[in-house]
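Morning. Coffee machine broken again, so started the prediction first thing and wrote up yesterday's gels while waiting. Chain of 416 residues, entered below exactly as on the submission form.
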Amino acid sequence: MIESSRLEDSTDLQGDGAALQKQLMPFNKKVDARITVINKNGKVLADTKKDPAKLENHANRPEVRAILKSGEDLGVATHRSHTLGYGMLYVAVPILHNDQITGVVRVSVSLDSVEKAVFQLWENLAIVFGVAIIIIALISLWIARRVTKPVQEIIEVSENLAQHRYNSRIRGRASGELQDLAISVNALAESLESQMQAIKQNEQRLTAVLQNLVSGVMLINNDKMVIMTNKMMYELLDTPSIAGKYYYEVIKSFALTQLVEAAIQTKSLQREEITLYFPKEMTLDANVSPILTDQGEITGLILLLHDITQIKHLENVRTEFVTNVSHELKTPVTALKGFAETLLDGAMYDEALLKKFLGIMKDESDRLHRLILDILALSRIEQHALPINQEVVDIYQTITEAAQTVTESAKQKTLT
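Came back before lunch.
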């Protein structure tokens, strides 16, 4: 075809075309297409399929007219060939001589073969694209798994950390920024696990200390609701259920309730000794301390109750003991003073009376000595350093001696 479109300038396109026909015939077997040479008047000079002399003028064929009449560089048309009897695709190009169109070379192929070629092309393209899509899908899946699997594992570990499962770790291997992120998440998990273990240990220690305090402790929130108590508080209030209730529901003491309200109003520590009469009578050292923020707002209260009933009892016993000791000391001292004054007033010259008085004074001195020893013994008893030895005494003799001690004083005061 190329050679046929490059005809020598000496080629006579106005002749009978026998030379052209001879020149084109070798292409009949080489090219699966029909080649036609047409002069500028539309006359067929050569054709690889038919005898040019039997072919009609082609000047009005669309592809030829596009070259000869319109001066286009390429003419393309599809129509039914009257010569061959089936649809053809025609492509025409001009033959130039001194830049003038002297004729047309037309190549035509069967539309059926074109359609087969196009179908084969599309089929090949479909296979290529199908294989390419499968390969791309597999590569994409592989890349996605390499990317999404570490991301999914990071998400799962993050969710576990949010649910307080701090022993969760990222086990898979990643690359690039995902590897750095995985290392950071694992470091965060290790830090959180270590901190939570320390917090739990401190909480256990604090709970152990709190539960073993001899004082009752109650934590009240800003809504006046009890959120925590220790074992001693249950014992003091004799209430099986405290936490989750309002403090005034479990504290059956108006004075103690007023103390809590005073702490809320003043935002300061309140302390007072309060006597409870239910469930049993007891004296408590009550302390109410507000929990304040940096802005001075109350977020809760700590109520501390210490049972000082025994201490108060011991104080009363001590006071009574001092009173009794003072009275016991006063009796022998008064007796000694009275007998001494009587002797100085002249009774010392009466030998019988002197001997009697001196005997009584000796007995009172011995009694005073025994009283001092008893006081010392009581002191040691309080310190749990002296055992108590019980013995039988002659109460009549004790009463007689006590009467003799005060007889002289009674006579001086004319008492009977």
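The beta strands are 34-39, 44-47, 75-80, 87-97, 100-110, 216-221, 226-229, 270-276, 282-292, 298-307. Going to sketch it on the whiteboard this afternoon.
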